Amino acid sequence: MRITRIKEKNSLHTFKDSTICTLHINKDNVFCDFEKLSKTWETSSNIAIRLDVEQTDVEPIVKELLGKLPNDLAYCIMSEIAEFEHLEAELMRLIYNTGDTGCKVAICLRDDLPQDLKKCCEQSNDINVQQHRDNKHKHM
Fold first, then answer.
1. What per-residue confidence (pLDDT) applies to 45?
2. pLDDT tens for residues 96-133?
3. Reduced to 3 states, what is the DSSP secondary structure of residue 36?
4. Strand 2-8 and strand 21-25: pairing?
5. Which one, 5, 9, 76, 125, has the greatest CB density within 10 A?
6. pLDDT score, position 46
7. Which residues contact 116 (CB under 8 A, 6 or more apart)?
8. Beta carbons within 8 Å of 76's beta carbon, 6+ residues apart
9. How far apart are CA 107 and CA 132, in angstroms?
């Protein structure tokens, strides 16, 4: 199954009358062109990623990204992957334990967390994780 997602950098801001550059992210360019993509991501303000990966490629991509940390684009890709349906529990743990706040929030907002991750999310000291968790419970 192919998964395609789009996420804008600085998604809280509205860009009027401006062009948004889109980085197309797939398995090949994570492995072969990551430094170039990362530089483009870091030097652009109006940019989005389009993540286009096969479900079977998720694990090798995450493991490759771990070697790039700390890196904003790697964290962004991992936070998007954290929202994929049918994500294996071990990958959820890996993303939560190595990711930034965005990764942790994305994991903690899932409905299919294993008990150990639920506990981590409930006990998180990260104010962003707490706020998103509380907002999720208010809307349930």
1. 84
2. 999 999 999 999 999 999 999 999 999 999 998 888 77
3. helix
4. unpaired
5. 76
6. 85
7. 93
8. 7, 9, 41, 49, 102
9. 11
Instruction: Give Cβ neighbours of residue 82 (< 8 Å, ≥ 6 apart).
Output: 92, 95, 96, 99, 103, 106, 107, 110
Cβ-in-10-Å burial (0-12, 13-18, 19+) of 101 comes to middle
* Residue with the two structure tokens 């062009």: 19
pLDDT at 15: 46
DSSP character at residue 20: P
| Residues whose CB falls within 8 Å of the CB of residue 52, separated by 6 or more in sequence, listed in order | 2, 3, 4, 24, 25, 26
Q: What is the pLDDT of residue 12?
A: 41
Largest CA distance in the chain: 46
Q: Strand 2-8: give its sheet, edge to edge.
A: 2-8, 47-54, 21-25
Rounded to two decimals, what is the model's pTM? 0.84
Handedness of CA 6, 115, 97, 91 (dihedral sign): negative
User: What's the whole-number mean pLDDT along residues 26-53?
Assistant: 94
Q: How far apart are the first and last CA of the chain?
A: 29
Would you list the domain boundaries of the chain?
2-81, 99-140
